[in-house]
Amino acid sequence: MKKFIRSILIVLAIVLGLGVQQSQAQSVKLFFGDLLNGAANGAALGGATMALQNSGDIAPIRVGVGLGVLYGAGIGLYDNSIVPKGQQFYISGTFNDGRNSTIIVLLDTFYGAVGGATIGGAISLIANDPILTGVQYGSGAGAWLGFGFGLIDAFVLAEGPNELQAFSNSKKLNHAEGLVQLSNSSDKVNIGLIHPTIFSQKEIKTNAIKTNYNMGVQLLNINVGL
């Protein structure tokens, strides 16, 4: 009888431990997702600064990555503070949905750079100036404008976890994460390309359950809604 009770207690301890680990893993994934996106955004803005300065000095990228890491860490703490511990974070911006706030800003920066490059190239064609010069300055200015709009988009215009909670409870968000997202007309098949993420792996030892975390990039995500 004692062995049976002891076995039950061990099982309960393992289950509770897994629950705590899962909750912690979700918080860690959210934090490091923001951290990686922040670093990528900082690098992008550093490149945009180099384009505007017409300089080959990579110092802006170095500074941008450093500031981006600090920015991502701050947003990671913020995102964890506004979502119940262990629950999935969802945010719906003007152009994209995401599972952390920084992905909205990063994608808006990317769209701004592409839009700026297009407009800069078009103006160069009209003025009969070198197209590459127009693309260079247009993409640099567009990236900074996109970043500014992204901050407003993520923290003012977007619907955050509180607004999306009822929707996420009634309908699973059919969303494949990635910097580039594709979907069919019915939105049942979603494809995401290039998604920075954190991989977790549980290791059960004799007296403890340990979770190992590794940074990585998912090249392809496919989500099919039935």
How do you describe this structure in short?
By secondary structure, this protein is an alpha+beta fold.
Query: What share of residues is helical?
Result: 55-70%
Low-confidence stretches: 7-22, 166-173
Shape: globular
Strands side by side in the biggest sheet: 3-4-5
Give the beta-strand count: 5
Structural class: alpha+beta
**How big a fraction of the residues is strand?**
15-25%
| Count of runs of 4 or more consecutive helical residues | 5
- The average pLDDT score comes to 79
Structure commentary:
This protein is of the alpha+beta class and about 230 residues long. The chain has one domain. The protein is about 60% helix and about 20% strand. The protein is built from five helices and five strands, in the order ααββαααβββ. Strand 3 (about 180-185) and strand 4 form a beta hairpin.
